[in-house]
Amino acid sequence: MIIVGAGLGGLALAHGLRSNGIDVALYERDAHPDARPQGYRIQLDEPGLAGLEHCLPPTLFQLCLATTGTPPARVSVRDRHLRVLADKAALSGSGAGNAAGPRAFNRPTLRQVMLSGLRDHVHYGARLSAYQYEADGTVTARFADGRTASADLLVGADGVNSAVRRLLLPDAPVHDAGLRLVYGKIPFKRNSRSDIPDWVFENIFTVVTGGPGHPHLGLGPVEFSDRPDRAGLAHTPPVALSPVGDYVACMVGAPADHPSMPSFEQLRGLTHAGLRDVALRVLGADWHEDVHRLLGLWDTDSLFPLRISTAAPVPAWDSGPVTLIGDAIHAMSPVLAMGANTAIRDASELTRALSTAARTGEPLKDAVRTYESRMTDYAFSIVADSQRTGRQRVGQR
């Protein structure tokens, strides 16, 4: 199998297929794993944890859990004066091993764990330019640098700007959700946890909102039970993981048409300090003093901009030797923290469909059709829920 994209969904799928005896090669357009910022904290709830456990070797799944934080499983929404508007339990785990969940992961650490055991199967600097169907039912992928690869199935796991989706479903729309984020983190230094207000640690994630169509602040603590590099060394065999300390993920968002929000192209051209200045202007002086204290603790060098996208439902298409998982087919806003969860669930569902076909002799096309029918049913329902919640909380389009 060919997987285009070595993000979380693609890596989970590769592990799942390999564990079922299916050969896999991953092709990633980035030059190396750390070629661009891909975020910090992600939250995995029941769908993602169950999918991760299904796809990964048991020891790697346990290492994933050992490199997570377990904040209180509640999500809180507050107004800009910190009055609680909503407070509810986050999705809980149900059967994902001892991951009672939800869990707060450091995204780069999770990728490092998932890359272990796959490094010889990932080909970097491979930008897909085309693919073609062969007479024998296989598919050949062509990359911009002249490389080619053929397989029974090509899976697009290449994110919001998926090249595979553009080729397979050229009319499948991905819309600008009308939100811009400045994303960074507040690292813990000596005694600095006491500098952070207690309410930040009362939930797995907190949204402080100015209301629909106004700016918002998102906060998610990541406190490791053991530092990832130490947990990696304790693994058998040892897995080299970069050292990272506890932190709070902190993001400031606003509608794209907010008067203090530059265009995304301008945001991308700003220095780290310039991004911080934008965030401070966006929130303004009438937000609670705790908010401004938190922004004063931001690691300025960690900041980068994000543009939020959302996919529209896609009518059923003819199944064949090319399919899609994750943001490549169902990009969604992050307000429900379900993007990574759903991508990993996709990987699990596709693994299950393909391994069943390999065991029973079911035609590959039928297995792909089974996966696509299930995936579009659950995934676009979550996209719609995310869009509806984003409109209510933060003015998403």
Automatic annotation (TrEMBL):
Read off the Gene3D superfamilies from this record: FAD/NAD(P)-binding domain (3.50.50.60)
Query: FAD-binding domain spans which residues?
Result: 316-383
GO MF assignments: monooxygenase activity
| Taxonomic superkingdom | Bacteria
Q: Which UniProt keywords apply?
A: FAD, Flavoprotein, Monooxygenase, Oxidoreductase
Which InterPro entries would you find in this protein's record?
FAD-bd, FAD/NAD-bd_sf
Q: Does the keyword Oxidoreductase apply?
A: yes
Q: Report the Pfam families cross-referenced here.
A: FAD_binding_3, NAD_binding_8
Q: What is this protein called?
A: FAD-dependent monooxygenase
